[in-house]
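Tokens as discussed.
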């Protein structure tokens, strides 16, 4: 799995956040774990009050941001943020959290079908070792656009993983 290297400007996200071990009660790609529940809460919020979210970038997809925590290897706890990109911050509803990602280079891994639910972390680590790049920041995100159909249509789905990198 070889990534595409791209440079991106600052990304401003608004959404919902969870900190802890999202797989404590239910592992894998399921709507029953804390990540699935976080998506459900965010989508319910958008149905209820989505018109309050301003300056959403047109034609943009959805973000699932994973932020490493210093104790993550020991505890399994990290932050998960789900949301969408906005052009600028103005009158952000109090229930929403904000994440501002710095301008950086990303290694973008495109996953298709069953690759999405496979353990791709080893392949990403192997690529880092071979490439001469290292992680630039302690986060990464999954980007869902119209190519991702659903978990029920996984074989027809495509997902991009973004890892910030530097030489």
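Sequence:
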């Amino acid at each position: 799995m070889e990534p595409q290297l791209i440079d991106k400007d600052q990304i401003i996200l608004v959404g919902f956040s969870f900190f802890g071990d999202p797989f404590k009660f239910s592992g894998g790609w399921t709507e029953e774990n804390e990540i699935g529940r976080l998506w459900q809460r965010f989508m319910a919020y958008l149905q209820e009050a989505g018109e309050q979210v301003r300056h959403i970038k047109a034609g943009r997809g959805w973000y699932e941001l994973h932020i490493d925590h210093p104790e993550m290897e020991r505890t399994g706890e990290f932050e998960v943020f789900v949301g969408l990109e906005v052009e600028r911050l103005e009158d952000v509803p109090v229930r929403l959290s904000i994440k501002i990602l710095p301008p950086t280079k990303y290694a973008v891994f495109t996953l298709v079908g069953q690759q999405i639910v496979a353990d791709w972390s080893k392949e990403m680590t192997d690529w880092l070792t071979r490439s001469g790049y290292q992680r630039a920041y302690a986060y990464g995100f999954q980007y869902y656009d119209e190519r991702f159909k659903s978990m029920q249509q996984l074989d027809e789905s495509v997902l991009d993983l973004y890892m910030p990198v530097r030489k």
